[in-house]
Structures are given as C-alpha cells and as structure tokens.
Write a structure and sequence with these properties.
Layout (H helix, E strand, L loop, with lengths): L3 E5 L3 H10 L4 E6 L2 H13 L3 E6 L5 H12 L4 E6 L10 H22 L5 E4 L13 H9 L30
Parallel strand pairs: 1-2, 1-4, 2-3, 4-5
Helix pairs in contact: 3-4
C-alpha cells in the first residue's frame, strides 16, 4: 500500500501542492462539494496521479472522522494538505469560525491521532489570515490550548467582538 496524502479543500492551491509532493502517494481529496472534489480528482488522475475523492465537511467532527477513516482504507496517512476554508465574501462570521477555526482545529486533532511517525502537514490561509492585528499572548494561549469543542465559546470569538465580515473578518483584541 502507498502512503496516503489527504488534500482537504478541492481548489487550485491545494491541488498545486498535492501535484508537487504527491506523485508516489495515494491522494484522497476531501471537499464539502463533491462535484468540486471530483473535478480536481479528474484533473489529477489525467495527469497520472493515484487519486480518489470523498465528501468532508470541516464544520462537522463526525464528517472529519469519517473522511479520515475512509482514507485509512487506502494506506497509512503520511501527509495532510488543508486548503479548505470559507472567506468573508462567501459566508457569515459564524460559518467562517466554524469551518476555518473549529474545523481546522478538529482536523489537526484527529489527524494527529493517526498520522504516521514523522508525517507532515500544512494548513493554508487566505490573505485574510494575515490582515488581522496581533491578539496578544493571553488570547493566543487561549486559542492554542482550549479544547476544540470549547473554542467557539471563547469571549474573543463571539460575534460582537469580531469586526465586520467584509472585506476581511478579524477578531478585535479584548482590552
């Protein structure tokens, strides 16, 4: 069996990374939109990659666990490319936090349980991820250490503490 590379988010950036590092891997593309996943899988298959696609919803822990479990049927997971997410022009603040923050945290937590020793991963952020001001060490620590299931309950992540969602959502530091 080949090592498995998980590509979460069926878009051009994730595909470019997977094409660069995934030639000798079984690539499992996961996306909430199965049509998008199939399109990227078809492109990669036609370029000679060993690829399959599955549905995964980053806003749902069970969906993430099912995706990982299905991917493990093809071999040991050795790489993760997380290129999934929603932008302020696509979704509400609540959805952005549920997918981009909670979903990423759950994905990393669940992959961490099964990835082979010395496995690798990368999570991609849009430019919006670089536009917000520094949150401070206290909030950084909360975000880094709070259990995934409690993340969205943090005061700093309440809608009233988040700047408008267009053109870029960002968290306001609590003073």
């Amino acid at each position: 069996m080949k090592d498995v590379l998980l590509l979460v988010g069926a878009g051009q950036i994730g595909m470019a990374i997977a094409r660069r590092i995934g030639f000798d891997k079984k690539i499992i593309i996961g996306d909430k939109n199965l049509d998008n996943a199939k399109k990227i899988a078809d492109i990669m298959y036609n370029a000679g990659f060993d690829v399959n696609y599955l549905e995964v919803d980053l806003a749902d822990r069970i969906s993430i666990k099912n995706y990982i479990q299905e991917a493990q049927k093809y071999g040991q997971i050795g790489m993760l490319i997380n290129a999934a997410g929603v932008s302020p022009s696509q979704a509400s603040i609540e959805t952005i936090l549920k997918v981009d923050l909670y979903g990423t945290a759950v994905l990393l937590e669940e992959i961490g349980k099964v990835i082979k020793p010395y496995g690798t991963g990368v999570t991609i952020s849009s430019q919006s991820g670089h536009r917000m001001e520094a949150l401070g060490s206290e909030i950084d620590e909360q975000l880094a250490t709070t259990d995934c299931e409690d993340l969205l309950s943090l005061p700093v992540l309440q809608v009233e503490n988040i700047k408008d969602n267009l053109p870029n959502a960002s968290v306001k530091p609590l003073n």
